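User: For my dataset I need records formatted as: sequence, then structure tokens, nothing else. Please produce one.
Assistant:
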Amino acid sequence: MVAPRAAELSDKECQDYLDDPSNEICLDRVFNLRFEVLKVLNGTYQSKEIQAIGFYHGWGLPIYMLYEPACVSFSKKGELFILEEALPAKAIGSKYICEEEGE
């Protein structure tokens, strides 16, 4: 569970993150993201902040930066966290419930 804190357009292109850029096409924009960590639901993570990259195939601010709080999952490539999925969440007391998009 995270709360979005910052997003800025990266100077890198999504092709920079492909395993085989000669065999894949990527049209997404790359964002450098910063989130406040509210709760870790799976695995371990000690810091109160996480920095990651995210991809967004559209214009404007990525929709996942509007969810607060948000259920997110990350993958890791070397030392880099990559946002894989983000869904809106609802805080109920000290617990969180992940929602489906559009709820």
